[in-house]
Design brief:
Blueprint (H helix, E strand, L loop, with lengths): L1 H43 L7 E6 L4 E7 L2 E9 L5 E6 L6 E4 L13 H10 L5
Antiparallel strand pairs: 1-2, 2-3, 3-4, 4-5
Length: 128
């Protein structure tokens, strides 16, 4: 009986350690992705910039795409219904740089005015 209690205690401790490690990794990942999203958000500048050129509508969020030189899809910001920027993409180089919190939007710290996003989507013909 004692042996089973010791094994059960060890299993509980191992699971608790995994929870702590998982939460730490989630926080580290969210902080890293938020830094990248903020950097791409700064590259975009004002949401209503003349470089706003296209959009993408997905069930979970709406995306605004900004051109740079001859690349119509150079920069992209994807925003959820609460105005959280949950994904940002920089396609200016050979390999796209993607920052995403799609899997856990509640950890997104970069925000924009959702009403402004909707206004711009209407202007682009995405919403009626």
């Amino acid at each position: 009986m004692r042996r089973w209690l010791a094994v059960a205690g060890a299993v509980v401790l191992a699971l608790a350690a995994l929870v702590v490690v998982g939460r730490h990794e989630r926080s580290r990942h969210a902080a890293s992705e938020n830094r990248k999203i903020a950097e791409i958000r700064r590259l975009v500048g004002p949401l209503d910039s003349p470089s706003l050129d296209a959009f993408r509508l997905l069930p979970q969020f709406s995306c605004l795409l900004y051109k740079r030189r001859d690349n119509r899809f150079a920069l992209e910001l994807c925003v959820d219904a609460q105005g959280r920027v949950v994904e940002a993409i920089d396609r200016r180089g050979r390999t796209p740089r993607i920052a995403s919190l799609r899997e856990d939007p509640s950890h997104a710290t970069v925000r924009v005015e959702r009403a402004e996003v909707d206004r711009l989507l209407r202007k682009l013909g995405a919403l009626s």
